[in-house]
Amino acid sequence: MAGNTGTPGATVAGRMLALLGAFDAAHRALTLTELAQRSALPLTTAYRLVGELAEWGALTRRPSGEYVVGRRLWDLGLLAPVQSGLREVASPFMHDLYAATLATVHLAVRDGTRVLYVERLAGHASVPVVSQVGSRLPMHATGVGKVLLAYAPEEVRAAVFADLTRVTPYTITQPGRLRAQLRRVHREGYAETSEEMSLGAASLAVPVRTANGSVVAALGMVVPSLKGVRPRLVAGLQVAAQGIRRSFH
């Protein structure tokens, strides 16, 4: 169970962390009772601590009575050196891409077996885009996710391949096809999707490397179709990724 530290002698900080740890990708909104159960805390204790967390901004209470992670935690997370540094370095190159294509451009990192979107510029085209800053999506169904999966440790790939959920009728859930795509990322330097995460949307993504060559993020864009534009968009993404790499110190 997530955040289970409701043992005798647990500190106040430990109990608060247990409450925050109750949230995960499958439990984004929780009632007070659910928070108490998932953190193994007495309901009265959970009530008091959840109130303090909500007052500080770590949690937000919806009109329905459920609690979700608050904006203040996200703002705090952006101060982490990797994410804040990436966003600052990548920002001008993302704006250049957006200006040249008017497409949705996003920057993402791996968070366990999910892809975490840390920056996003919304495009003008009417394309269904499900990514938001702070959202976590399946790695196997997104362009940026496939790039990050291609360079992930073997244990991460094994965990992802064990749960290839079908998001749309076009999501690739056959392990052999997905492995072939990951090999292409290494060979050709980019990944693509076509209506795998949302119908009516295609995506392209390339790896973002640090100065020493390590892949730390993926840079991608979402467009209505890749027909006739793939080479130009891939080239633009790769130029931007190279610019980000040169800007790392």
TrEMBL record:
The keyword Protein transport does not apply. Gene3D superfamilies: 3.30.450.40, Winged helix-like DNA-binding domain superfamily/Winged helix DNA-binding domain. The keyword Transmembrane does not apply. Residues 72-249 form the IclR-ED domain. Residues 10-71 form the HTH iclR-type domain. It comes from the Bacteria. SMART domains: HTH_ICLR. Signal peptide: none annotated. Keywords: DNA-binding, Transcription, Transcription regulation. Pfam families: HTH_IclR (PF09339), IclR_C (PF01614). InterPro entries: GAF-like_dom_sf, HTH_MetabolicPath_Reg, Tscrpt_reg_IclR_C, Tscrpt_reg_IclR_N, WH-like_DNA-bd_sf, WH_DNA-bd_sf. This is IclR family transcriptional regulator. It comes from Pseudonocardia eucalypti.
